[in-house]
Design brief:
Layout: H1 2-23, H2 25-68, H3 75-84, H4 90-100, H5 107-120, H6 125-139, H7 145-156, H8 163-176, H9 180-191, H10 198-211
Helix pairs in contact: 2-3, 3-4, 4-5, 5-6, 6-7, 7-8, 8-9, 9-10
């Protein structure tokens, strides 16, 4: 008796499944097709990204090789194009190359390129903070106190590994402006940091002892 009931229940379940598949056949097929499209689209996208990365890398390497071999005519154009590709690796490297070799000297243009990398590329947090620090370092020679602090605030208000560097930059900035009290305050902030760079902390302490001891 129990065996008969079990067989009936099994048959009933199978029939329900069969009825369900028949009733929703179109929807199931559509869902399956959508899943296939998503999977194939993902692999096509990954392949495209990989090929594009190689293309950008080749363009960066060729631009730097040409520059060092004396063929500098297209260096600026090629590297700016790479920056506008918004690649996580080669866009920052292109900007650093332009700066290190003084290929671009116009401040507004340089800051626009910095902003492209900082605001429009999904960089890892500390890589982004490094770019922000480099932007501040570049601007420290001509920007006002308020603008420089505004640039560095995302680092100074965080627990970034670049925070000691940012504080040290501000301390040096005020020292060379002969605003000794402000400079001292930034050196002191470095000393009390919990997460610190030991070499920067040691240098900050040395500067306090040498330049601010009474």
């Amino acid at each position: 008796m129990d065996e008969d009931i079990s067989i009936i229940n099994t048959q009933t379940k199978n029939q329900k499944i069969k009825d369900f598949l028949i009733q929703f056949k179109k929807q199931i097929i559509s869902l399956f097709v959508i899943i296939l499209i998503i999977v194939f689209s993902y692999f096509i996208y990954v392949d495209f990204q990989k090929k594009n990365k190689i293309k950008i890398a080749d363009k960066y390497n060729q631009a730097t090789i040409d520059y060092h071999s004396g063929n500098k005519a297209n260096t600026k154009k090629d590297l700016i194009e790479i920056i506008k590709e918004k690649d996580k690796t080669y866009s920052p490297l292109s900007l650093y190359f332009l700066l290190d070799n003084k290929i671009i000297t116009e401040n507004n243009e340089i800051n626009e390129l910095f902003d492209t990398i900082i605001n429009e590329i999904n960089l890892e947090k500390e890589i982004k903070n490094l770019v922000i620090y480099k932007k501040a370092l570049f601007n420290s020679e001509f920007q006002t106190e308020n603008n420089l602090i505004k640039i560095l605030n995302p680092i100074m208000n965080s627990e970034s590994i670049w925070k000691p560097h940012a504080l040290y930059l501000m301390a040096e900035y005020f020292y060379y402006k002969n605003e000794k009290q402000k400079s001292k305050e930034f050196f002191q902030k470095i000393i009390i940091l919990e997460k610190n760079n030991l070499s920067i902390k040691k240098e900050a302490q040395r500067r306090l002892n040498r330049d601010f001891s009474e």
